[in-house]
Amino acid sequence: MTELMEKNSDEIMGKIYNVSNRFSLLLKFLDCREVLSVQVHTSDDQEQYIPEADTGKTEAWVVLETSEESCIYAGLKEGTNKENLLQSIQDKTFSDRLNSFVPETGNAVFIQSGTLHTLYLKCR
Questions:
Q1: CA pair distance 66, 98, nearest whole angstrom
Q2: What are 108's strand-pairing partners?
């Protein structure tokens, strides 16, 4: 198997594998009974913030279990700007500035690097 991996590393592991010599896929199982931290991962075009031989962090999620109250927040709503975003943080209405939806079991969700995102059991 190792020989096959080495011979076909670009096809199996991606082109960055030969530079970084590490597996470029990270798998996580998240339990979202409590709100997770709001995150934004560096995008590929922000090279000054990315370690050499690394890339931005784009994510793909598969929803294994959900409820009617579950929520995925991904991206800012249209019309959000620096001023009203900062105000919403002070007013504790930050989630009102985020696009959100209730996921269904089996959904696949693509989060492009540079997109603000979080998960929570209950939509607000």
A1: 20
A2: 62
